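#struct-pred

JT: dropping the chains for the assembly here, can someone run the whole complex?
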Amino acid sequence: MAEVQANDHGGDGKKNKQKKQTLRVDFTPMVDMNMLLITFFMFCTTLLKPQTMKIVFPAKDQVKEEQDNKVAESTAVTLLLGANNEIYYYEGYIKEADYEKYDEFLKQTDWEPIGEPTESIRQYLYSRNKGTYDQIEELRKQMRNQQITEDAFNEQVKQIQDEAKKAKKAPTVMIKPSDLSSYMNMVDALDEMLICNIASYAVMDLDKGDRIILARKTDNQEYLTEEERKDPKINK
Amino acid sequence: MAKVKVKKHSTFIDMTAMSDVTVLLLTFFMLTSTFVNKEPIQVTTPSSISETKVPDTNMLTILVDPSGKIFMSMTNQDQLLATLEKVGDDYGITFNDKQKATFARLKSFGVPIESMPAFLSLTIEEQDKKMTHKDDPNIGIPNEDTKGADGTITKSSEFKRWITYATEENKELLLAIKSDKNVPYPIVKKVIEDLRDLRKNRYLLLTSLKTASAE
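RK: done, full complex below.
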């Protein structure tokens, strides 16, 4: 390959001696150098470009009461993120009288795609959001097959989600990461919202009722605040 | 007896093909990869299905380490320098040109403003060495507000000042939060609460890619 056949008509015509010379270029040092460079690039660079997830938090000065009332009881779902990657959920709102009956509404679930033996959070959210989910996935398929543009897709998704919200079919999810949960849990929870095509969700702090039922369910006082731990009514 | 003719084999291996392959690989790596940014701490970001790419410009990354220490990096070095001067002004600290030049070269920073001039006067090796002492109170941008007796904020923290001035410099600045997946939530919450205090409600959470579907 790297040889050049050189026909050297050397000497004078009298002898006419054809001297065949092979010009070979040795590529070994070149390979050495390239290997070195490759090694350098492999160690010093990364192929993965990190992804980002957009999130909007409500402004602090917005009136909280007003916001809470907006969510209809029938569509409200609260996710409580506990210690050791545990996740619990309940539907609707809890009243003070219900704190004792936490076992009736507070359900433990898990992060697996398909939960065993209990329903996973993804399965639950999917079942709650089925109609909307299927419609959106149908559209997504069309977009992948380039039947509709991305802009049209986004517009139609918004329309579907708005309609479902008006009809009170789509759930509104309140993600409440407890102080014992990790950052990953919150991102995972947000991820489930994206996977299940849930339009309305928010990250919030736990309120008193959430902390109490969580502490009772798991028998872990660490969920409670200092004062709540001292309160004999709460901490029995 | 017949003479056995020993055939002389050339040991020369043609490396051209090999060279072709390596050059190809090299080109691939050069074109597809990005350089690893030198960061004071190594974090494993949580994975997500979100496919939004990290923007290349107008980004301020807030790096939060498991003990709650904060480091920052910004894509635009000029704006970062202007921010440094403003934050320095608040604390009556000025920087000379050499220190500013060093600061502009830093990929990410995280020292209290009081120790910034001393830190910038160190050589790069010394800076790296200092950054490895994680228990040092002089590492990480302080984010504790000074509060009055009634709980109101009398003096906002250095972290808040950095964010305020950086967003003043660039109105379109995107705030990205980068944190390890095992960081306890209250630590991230503290950072988010601080940002919400400043009426910054939109963030990007840096994640790595994973695939999933609901069915």
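JT: nice. Chain A has nine helices and nine strands. The mean pLDDT of chain A is 79.
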